[in-house]
Write a structure and sequence with these properties.
The structure is a single chain. This protein is of the alpha/beta class. It folds into four domains: 125 residues, no CATH class; 68 residues, no CATH class; 66 residues, no CATH class; 139 residues, Trna Endonuclease, Chain: A, domain 1 (3-Layer(aba) Sandwich), CATH 3.40.1350. The protein is built from 15 helices and eleven strands. The strands form three sheets. It has a five-stranded mixed beta sheet, with helices on both faces. Helix 1 runs parallel beside helix 2, helix 5 packs across helix 6 and helix 11 crosses helix 14. The chain is elongated and about 85 Å long.
């Protein structure tokens, strides 16, 4: 259609390219970026060496060419890279003095778009940058950056059919497998789920090989550094409905698992409900790609073992579970717990439960933690293809007490209708030995 396409001066900054080993180095890197943009636009800048002042000068001079467009990618990268370093405050000050120009120059700006993996701007880190609109969980943008199922069928349907024929798999089953691996991201409770476009594209490019692609495009080091530092209770994140205001928070000094993992894309909305005029969210991994890769890294972080060793032992655990070999299961669990560095351990029963839960999730079996009943709460239930295991954990108490509690509370009753054998397992952790010291099992009769 006929339209008058007017040109505007564009400032394009990829902050991930700025070195940030110190505030001084970051300042110099930002100055270099600003000068490169000025050269592209055809603007001559002064010899100013303060990145914030130089950015303001560029905007002020660019406005003479028209209202300015500012595009900033990975605005938070310097903070993420220095999250627990002594000079984090100095890094923050450099960025705050740099980004304050966006608010100060509001009347000269036509459009501003910033991306990052965290909501640092929501808190005191960027308290002065309060004129932005967050579209992370905005319904009208919820499917903008991923493929919906309809779009996958429309644009890739023929390719999927060819791959299904090549691998001699039923086309419907093949589509369900692709969906299980790469679909599932949800950015609003009323929006449909979307596929990760990077992972799906690489999947097709590699001839339909089901594997993890997303983690290879960006290191999760920052996430695990925070999880380890904050001693976050990981499994509770999957078992509780979380108020919307919690997910919208991001406090560097007191990070919580839910907003951190949601904002960085490792968890997504599984379901929601309204209560007392608030929206509550239940989170989960979006798909198998994210779940398997994340949990391998998580177990590796907890035990400080490399990924190859973790993968090898997970395979052994899967084989033991399929064979109902609880002796091997116990042996491997004890070796994992023993590998946890002393400084990273806790005497809390919940911490050991968290570790076991993380390992069990990798097995691919159906697992439930802290299952609430009318007269108690089951610690862990594993539903295998032909067996059910009910676990009760104790700290410095005989395992027979755990077994007695399972029987007294009737924890197995809800699973009787499955028609599978049920094994009750009581586990006693020792504060002194910091491991499992007693494992008692009994068949439910």
């Amino acid at each position: 259609m006929p339209y008058h396409w007017k040109s505007y001066p564009v400032i394009n900054l990829n902050i991930s390219q700025a070195p940030c080993e110190s505030a001084e180095i970051l300042n110099r890197g930002l100055c270099a970026m600003v000068r490169n943009n000025a050269k592209e636009i055809g603007i001559e800048l002064t010899d100013e060496t303060h990145s914030g002042l130089l950015f303001g000068e560029l905007i002020n001079k660019a406005k003479d060419l028209g209202k300015v467009v500012i595009l900033i990618d990975e605005y938070d990268k310097p903070l993420v890279e220095n999250i627990y370093t002594p000079h984090i405050e100095e890094i923050r000050q450099v960025l705050e003095n740099f980004y304050i120009n966006i608010k100060a120059s509001d009347e000269y700006l036509r459009f501003v778009f910033m991306t990052g993996v965290t909501k640092f701007y929501k808190v005191s880190v960027f308290s002065k940058l309060n004129n932005l609109e967050d579209i992370t969980m905005d319904e009208q943008f919820a499917t903008m950056y991923g493929y919906t199922q309809e779009e996958v069928e429309q644009y890739f349907g023929d390719r999927i059919d060819k791959l299904a024929d090549k691998n001699k798999i039923d086309k419907t089953e093949y589509r369900e497998k692709i969906k299980k691996w790469y679909n599932g991201f949800c950015f609003h409770e009323d929006a449909c789920k979307v596929y990760n476009p990077v992972s799906l594209g690489m999947f097709f490019n590699k001839g339909g090989k089901f594997t993890n692609y997303w983690f290879s495009t960006g290191s999760p080091t920052f996430i695990f550094k925070v999880l380890k530092k904050q001693n976050i209770d990981f499994f509770k994140t999957f078992n509780e409905y979380i108020p919307d205001f919690v997910l919208d928070s991001f406090d560097v000094t007191n990070m919580q698992a839910a907003p951190l993992l949601l904002q960085t894309g490792y968890l997504t909305i599984e379901s929601s409900k309204s209560m007392f005029d608030r929206t509550l969210y239940k989170l989960n991994f979006p798909n198998l790609e994210i779940q398997t890769a994340f949990e391998h890294h998580l177990v590796g972080m907890l035990t400080e073992r490399n990924q190859q060793d973790v993968s090898t032992e997970i395979v052994k655990l899967q084989m033991a579970l399929l064979a109902n070999d609880t002796g091997t299961l116990l042996s491997i669990l004890k070796s994992h717990i023993a590998a946890i560095p002393y400084a990273n351990r806790s005497n809390m029963e919940e911490n050991y439960q968290n570790i076991i839960y993380s390992i069990f999730r990798l097995l691919g079996a159906e697992i439930h933690n802290e299952v609430h009943m009318n007269n108690g709460r089951i610690d862990t239930v594993i539903v295998n293809r032909d067996h059910i295991y009910i676990f009760e954990f104790k700290m410095d108490q005989p395992a027979k007490i755990a077994i007695a509690q399972i029987k007294e509370k009737g924890y197995a009753i809800p699973y009787l209708s499955d028609g599978k054998p049920i094994t009750l397992i009581g586990i006693n952790f020792s504060k002194k030995k910091r491991n499992i010291v007693e494992w008692l099992e009994e068949e439910w009769v």
